Amino acid sequence: MAADPGRVRTYRPMTDIDAPEAAPTRVGDEGLDARLVVDRGAFRLDVSLTAAPGDVVALLGPNGAGKTTALRALAGLVALTDGHLRLDGAPLEDTPPESRPVGVVFQDYLLFPHLTALDNVAFGPRCQGVPRAEARTQAAAWLERMGLADHAHAKPRRLSGGQAQRVAVARALATRPRLLLLDEPLAALDARTRLEVRAQLRRHLAEFEAVAVLVTHDPLDAMVLADRLVVIEHGQVVQQGTPADIARHPRTDYIAQLVGLNLYRGRADGHAVRLDAGPSLTTTEELSGPVFVAFPPSAVTLFRDRPTGASARNLWRCEVEGMETHGDQIRADLTGELALAADLTTVAAAELDLHPGAAVWATVKATQTHAYPA
Amino acid sequence: MTSPLGPDAATGPRTGRPRRRRVGTGGRRGVPLPLLLPGLVALAFLLLPLLALIVRAPWRTLPDQLSSTQVWQALQLSLVSATAATAVSLVLGVPLAWLLARTEFPGRGFVRALVTLPLVLPPVVGGVALLLALGRNGVIGRWLDAWFGITLPFTTTGVVIAEAFVAMPFLVISVEGTLRAADPRYEEAATTLGASRFTAFRRVTLPLIAPGIAAGAVLAWARALGEFGATITFAGNFPGRTQTMPLAVYLALQDDPDAAISLSLVLLAVSIAVLAGLRDRWMTGA
């Protein structure tokens, strides 16, 4: 990364990002208002989070960014070094986890293996002092709602991954939390189950009237499930906004990579942007000062010989570093004058005789680039 | 495992078939002699004395030997006091194991080492130490005697105390190990559901570590049943009151070896019964 400051590797196809714009969060007595500071020697988490009731916020970030620490701090399982935590106006910093109106769905669910699904869900109400019979009735209703009435008396080891996930959600909701936390709620599922469970979870979250915060490293999960993304890197919030906003205007390599864009930092002077990585790039936007320039790998055209013809703008001499297939597309990683990712069809790749080490000319049309102030 | 010769060649003659290998059958192939011989010697060493006990047992007079009230008194006392010592170990030892496994406090490693000390301490030394602490003139025993009129040495309670002193570390170490292996996040999950730490322990941790506790209790019980040194030092050797089976065996050996053998047979039978009873539950895979 240090060698290529403006370089962004793109691995993921563009996600469907045209989600409706979420209303700006209202900060008041209702909902969540937190600044979480956790100091762990070399690592420091400092994240501010606000959310209104009904909001679903996704903490998105690479491994080790501090997402899970933030979640544990919200649950009270990790003490705050500094900052504050208010839920519906009540300060919670000094409240022990068992007294917080917070429900947690853990990554591997942590269903109590010695209890049936029903008793797992009844556990929370029982701890809140609800009599056993009443707690079981409530639990049965939750399982019914999750479509698990038939599995009420099954032990967790006899549940499938998707069923266990729903029991975990029911168990967390049964305490009627004002803040629901989900740690990588879909990570433990296989790809097929994941699709189905994601849709169900989205429905349940939409029905949930209080604040939900979920942690994930999967942008698709985040974009499908959440109204608002908070991207965390190295313990800091690097960007937040609606999924659409973040996908259109990524501000870090990590985010650009997530949404599948080539991203460069540079300095604009009119239509020309002098990239930090070296060459210049022409854009349709007219800007001045520090900017980001982004374009999808599909906007890149490759030639084996220098294309004859007028425009020498946005034309760079590159070398193929690596190639991988994405469906019927080939994603080529290029180095050279400008490091970038290019998508082309397998047919085109064969005609160009592309292989690692091959020299190519890469070009991108100005109309397909997108520049915005940094 | 792909090999140019195909899967059969890879797993075939050289490494043996996936058949269970047993010493003494065709599976001996591949067992090095320097391991096989000492292993067999060890097995013989462990089993021969028990075999001798059975061979030399006075089978004809056995019913008479065992019908004496002293034998039954000793056996009863042994079983009752070992069970009581195990109960004491459970009630006090499980919380101690939890403290050692789940809390942070200065000097925890040192405390842990102290707990294991009775494991390696000669039991006689333990008995002497108990006398100095709880004896009539002991550091604590003096006050127990003066204030409550309680005397512990040379009583059945003293037997239980001596046995618990020796046996509890086995339980603590076993339960602590199980606790460390158990995922503490289950307790966290319980906490986020509104359970206090104690409720989480009682309703989640305890059921999860039950097999470990049971194994530890069996170890402790077996250790208490065979306890000799600390018992005879702290509780003496009074038939019917403090004379447990091991003491009775030792005493009988002095003047009636046949009686000693008979008593030993009874203890052996009890031990085998316990092992057999537990084999399928907790000892498989061990």
TrEMBL record, chain B:
Subcellular location: Cell membrane
Pfam families: BPD_transp_1 (PF00528)
SUPFAM superfamilies documented for this protein: MetI-like
Annotated spans, Disordered: 1-26
Spans through the membrane: 30-55, 75-101, 113-134, 146-175, 204-222, 259-278
Cellular component, GO, one term: plasma membrane
GO molecular function, one term: molybdate ion transmembrane transporter activity
Protein topology in the membrane: Multi-pass membrane protein
Keywords: Cell membrane, Membrane, Molybdenum, Transmembrane, Transmembrane helix, Transport
Positions of the ABC transmembrane type-1 domain: 75-276
PANTHER family xrefs: MOLYBDENUM TRANSPORT SYSTEM PERMEASE PROTEIN MODB
Family: Belongs to the binding-protein-dependent transport system permease family. CysTW subfamily.
Biological role stated in the UniProt entry: Part of the binding-protein-dependent transport system for molybdenum; probably responsible for the translocation of the substrate across the membrane.
Record-given protein name: Molybdenum transport system permease
Organism from which the protein derives: Streptomyces monashensis
